[in-house]
Design a protein that fits this description.
With 273 residues, the chain is mainly α. 70% of the residues lie in helices and 3% in strands. The chain has a domain at 3-151 and 232-266. A hairpin with a 2-residue loop joins strand 1 (100-104) and strand 2.
Amino acid sequence: MSRIDRAIREYESLEAMAHKNQWMNRLHPLVKFVVTVLFIALTVSVGKYNLAGLLLMAVYPLVMFITGELSVKDALRRLKIALPLILAVGIFNPLFDRETVLTVGGIGVSGGVLSMLTLLLKGLLTVLAAYLLVVSTPIEGICHALRLLHVPGILVTEVLLMNRYILLLLREVKHVSEAYELRAPGQKGIAPKAWGSLTGQILLRTIDRAREVGESMRLRGFSGEFQHGTPQKIRRIDFFYLAAWTCVLLLLRFVPLGDLVGRAVTGTLMTAP
């Protein structure tokens, strides 16, 4: 299977997961979106040396992966492109911050190492939180939540169209690459001299296809903003989900539980600056 086929398959797999009939998928999109944004904001606000407190914030994705019957391994595999970027964020911190701020088992840990680990964990947790939202909520639901938060309709429409355009672009790339392989049998990959012309063909094909889709939408009454059908009502379970996770996340962030964990694990006091 080619890389393009795998990309299309992964895209369709994510869409299928978002449309599953499961308790997490049935929650109101607005509630899930608010909880995700709250979790990301609280996680990012953790102090750069407060590793123990940040580990406590991992409760949210851990619980959601377990109760949602989702695979962490599959999530990390799908996010492998973002992981190197996360790694590069704080990789140079140990070179600039060499002061020892923690001792574990008689070994001193510099502030740079600790802040690097904190940045890595922050990036990983925020990416996993976004992944949980995507695999449990269709793109239409996310866009509906954005409109309920009064995000301008033109921006929401752009997000929805970009999401649909990705799959269209992948399929056009697949058609062009297959046509090239049929005209150049036995050749491994696409010759560099053909990259420019093939890129132009793909762009022209996708523009033509997008124009046809746009005309079809206008013929069906599209006026610049998508209609999401019958709005989903917020139920009691949605209010409970929002209230419960808000309380838990605020507790994990602002109650000094990290100090207690740090004392129990290392015998030292770990405070968030």
